[in-house]
Structures are given as C-alpha cells and as structure tokens.
Amino acid sequence: MGRNEAAKYLKRKKESEIHEMLFERGINLATLPSWQRRGVIISKEAREIQGFNPVSGKEEKSLRRKITQNWEIPKFKSEKGIPFLEKLINRN
Fold this sequence. Notes:
The protein has helices at 3-10, 15-24, 34-38, 81-89; strands at residues 41-53, 58-70. β1 (41-53) and β2 (58-70) form a beta hairpin. The two termini are 42 Å apart. It contains four helices and two strands. The protein has two domains: 1-32, no CATH class; 34-92, no CATH class. It is α+β, with helices and mostly antiparallel strands.
C-alpha cells in the first residue's frame, strides 16, 4: 500500500478503529510511550534575563525566547489538554 492509499484508508477513521486495526497487526498502542502516540511539541518560551546595556551603561531586564520541547503532551480534549492548547495558541 502506498502513502496516498494509506492516507485515504485512515481518513475519517475514529481513534478506536485505528487502535483496533493496529492491535490486529500486533501493535498495542497502550504499551508505547506517550510521545510515540501523541507526538512532541516544539515551541518558543519567553524568558526574562538580566543583562548590561552598553549604550545606556545600566543593568536592564529583557525578554529572550528559548526553544523548548514537550514530550508529555496531554490529550487535547482532557482537563489538562484544553488549557495546554490555549496557552500555546495565545503566546505572542
């Protein structure tokens, strides 16, 4: 089966149907780590740093963004998942 055929086959399948299909082929999703089931989120997180500004000659605070990885993603429809997504979406 090619990629396009596989994509068409899986399109509009429910989670339980995909789980059952994989289980029939010897893959138990429940035993896999969550990052293999749900993926990983890479995002930027703002952090405040204290530094010296050579132009003004003073110590100043500034924002820097750091790339972060989240390997433990909650289910998006869960109690933890909804605020998790809202926080990601509302970042500036």
